[in-house]
Structure formats: C-alpha cells, structure tokens
Amino acid sequence: MEVEKEIKEDLLKTFKEYVSNIKISRARRVFIDVKKEKLKDVLLHLRDKYGITHISTITAVDVNENIELLYHLLKDGVCISLRIHTPKNAPDVDTVTDILPGAVLYELEIQDMMGVVVKDHPDPKRLILPDDWPDGIYPLRKDWKVDWVEGGEIKEE
C-alpha cells in the first residue's frame, strides 16, 4: 500500500481544499472525492507526477439531486477512482480527452445514458442511442420509466 499512501498524502498536500474523503479501501484500491472544477488539475497532476495515463472507464450514478461520476484510472495494478458530482438539473463536465484520450467513448456513454453534457468533447455525437432518440430521456437515470417505450418506439408525452 505504499503507492496508495503516497498518492493520498500528495493529493491532500497539493490540492488541500479540492480533494476529500480519500479512502484506501484495500490494497491497490483508492477512492478520492474531487471538486468538479479541479478534476482536470488533479488528472494532470496524476499523469505528470505518477505517469497515470490509462483510464479504464467512467461510471455514472444517479444520486438524488446529482449525477455522480467516477473516473477509474489504472497504474501498475492500482485502481484510483476520482469521484465528482454535477447537479442533475444541469449536469455538465469538461472533457478530459486532452489529458486521457482513452476517455473519448466513456464520455459519450455518460452523455447518452445519463444526460451529462461533456463540454468541448472532440466529437460529441451519439454513441449508444439512435440519432432520433428524443432529448431529455436518459435510460440510466432513476426517473426512467420502461413504459416510455412501446414496441421499440419512444412514446411522446
């Protein structure tokens, strides 16, 4: 757990008020809450200081008034998950593809399925949902209702 502790101490020192709730849940597993506006700074720091360039996925969870995003990074068998929140009524994040190019498809997925607007994405087209899918309907949000779809078609309300 040497690397995990080093990263924890370094981020607490470098980003004091912008990171919190850093938990090493077990060997090779770290969770870090990051203020949304500092996500890119933390990612740049991790890339430049620790050589972390692999993003394994971005997951999104509908949690009450917010969408929680987890950026899962991998370096030498250590998984570091950076958690941010964005308000559900106007969810947006800056793209991280300029730092981690592998995030390109994951950002499109959270855009399609959770309605998170990814600002400055290099190619903001739909990835999963068809082009004619109605705006404002996001299948992975808790308010999604299966009866919005009838016979494979979206019912207009």
Description of the structure:
The structure is a single chain. With 157 residues, the protein is an alpha/beta fold. It has one domain (2-144): 2-Layer Sandwich (Beta Polymerase, domain 2). 23% of the residues lie in helices and 34% in strands. The protein has 3 helices and 9 strands, in the order H-E-E-H-E-E-E-E-H-E-E-E.
Overall structural domain count: 1
CATH architecture: 2-Layer Sandwich
Question: What spatial order of strands do you see in the largest sheet?
Answer: 1-2-5-4-3
Order of helices and strands: HEEHEEEEHEEE
Indicate the CATH class. Alpha Beta
In terms of DSSP E residues, the strand content is: 25-35%
The dominant shape is elongated
Q: Which homologous superfamily in CATH is the superfamily? A: NADH:ubiquinone oxidoreductase Nqo5 subunit
Roughly what percent helix? 10-25%
CATH topology: Beta Polymerase, domain 2
Number of helices: 3
Q: Rg to the nearest angstrom?
A: 17 Å
Q: Kindly name the structural category.
A: alpha/beta
Number of strands: 9
Question: How would a crystallographer describe the biggest sheet?
Answer: 5 strands, mixed
Low-confidence segments, given as residue ranges, are none
In short:
The chain is an alpha/beta fold and about 160 residues long.
List its traits.
157 residues, alpha/beta, Beta Polymerase, domain 2, 5-stranded mixed beta sheet, 3 helices, elongated
Q: Could you outline the blueprint of secondary structure elements for this entry?
A:
Elements: H1 2-14, E1 19-26, E2 29-34, H2 39-50, E3 54-63, E4 66-75, E5 78-87, E6 92-94, H3 104-114, E7 117-119, E8 149-150, E9 153-154
Parallel strand pairs: 2-5, 6-7
Antiparallel strand pairs: 1-2, 3-4, 4-5, 8-9
